[in-house]
Amino acid sequence: LNQAETLLIETRGRVALITLNRPGALNALNRQAMQELAEATRHFDRDPNIGCIVITGSEKAFAAGADIKEMQHQSFMDVYLADWFSGWEELTRTRKPMIAAVSGYALGGGCELAMMCDIIYASETAKFGQPEIKLGVIPGMGGTQRLTLAIGKSKAMEMFLTGRVMDAAEAERSGLVAKVFPVDRLLEEALKTAETIAAMSMPATMMMKEAVNRSFEVCLAEGIRFERRAFHSIFATQDKAEGMSAFVEKRTPNFSNS
Ligand code: CAA
User: Fold this and answer.
1) Which residues line ligand 1 (CB under 6 A)?
2) Is 10 a catalytic residue?
3) What does the alpha-carbon distance between residue 135 and residue 239 come to, in Å, rounded to a whole number?
4) Considering Cα of 216, then 219, then 225, then 226, what sign does the dihedral take?
5) Beta strands 179-181 and 119-123, pairing class
């Protein structure tokens, strides 16, 4: 496995622990992070000594979204031709169980990355949300599909359309999160569950994951392809440029609906 710049990677017995590590950007997910995460999960998926993967961030942020600074100057043609974000599909092809241990912000792509995992554990300080609407765009890493499946249409729609944040208690109540722990116990509990899973029959845990995912995957795959194209086309709007510039310049966006 190559050295990663955006991640810390270690193994603990049969558990692989991947820590998102771009502290200066609240672990915003840029292309490099996407590629390194995909490479790490592909590596551990093939390693017979690993039975479960834990993905975590820092105490302040699991990940504050896709990297807005990287997207700010991209046009529709840029993201369409590069099929921006399609690399995340590689991560979702991981056949071994993955646990997201979320503390602090899991916004936009951060929330979407957590939802690509099979189980989400949260700390009491976790904050989930899809604030893309505030940037004049929509989610592009599966959020419209996975959040809706996880918490139901009305609540999901309310979150997407207002961009509001959900705290850990509400996330647990809504079924987005399996369990909530105090901040200082989160990682330990995620690793403990990962160890339990890693001690099970590996083919059984893999088949379990495949079967559970099958329950919604056919329509999900279609939905995600659709979502990605819609996400690309929104890069043709003025409001995308304005929303992202306003974020970087730390001011309120002035949307022109064009
Ligand atoms: N992309 C790039 N940089 C980001 C970032 C992001 N998503 N989120 C935070 N950062 C950067 C900030 O620009 C800042 O950098 P500088 O120090 O160079 O100015 C640094 O991380 C620290 O952030 P803040 O100063 O903003 O920290 P805060 O504690 O005041 O606020 C926050 C935290 C509320 C999470 C705020 O950072 C924020 O709103 N972030 C953006 C959240 C967001 O809109 N996410 C969705 C992105 S779009 C997306 O994800 C598309 C998709 O579906 C895949």
Assistant:
1) 25-26, 28, 64-69, 105, 107-109, 112, 131-132, 135, 139-141, 143
2) no
3) 7
4) negative
5) parallel
- Spatial contact of 256 and 239, defined as CB atoms under 8 Å apart: yes
Nearest partner of 57 among 100, 89, 99, 95, judged by Cα: 100
pLDDT digit of tens for each residue in the chain (258 aa)?
Answer: 888 999 999 999 999 999 999 999 999 999 999 999 999 999 999 999 999 999 999 999 999 999 999 999 999 999 999 999 999 999 999 999 999 999 999 999 999 999 999 999 999 999 999 999 999 999 999 999 999 999 999 999 999 999 999 999 999 999 999 999 999 999 999 999 999 999 999 989 999 999 888 888 778 888 888 899 889 999 999 999 999 999 999 999 999 888
Which one, of 130, 156, 12, lies nearest residue 63 by Cα?
130
Residue 112 falls in the annotated catalytic set: yes
Distance CA 90, CA 210 (A): 15
Say how far apart CA 60 and CA 159 lie, in whole Å.
21
* Long-range pairs of 202-206 with CB within 8 A, sequence gap ≥ 24: 202/48, 202/51, 202/96, 205/51, 205/52, 205/96, 205/97, 206/95, 206/96, 206/97
Which backbone phi and psi does 101 adopt, to 5 degrees?
-105, 105
Return the structure tokens found at 210: 């495949």
In the annotation, is 4 catalytic? no
The strand ranges marked E within the chain are 7-12, 15-20, 52-56, 61-63, 98-102, 105-107, 119-123, 127-129, 165-167, 179-181
ipTM rounded to 2 decimals: 0.98
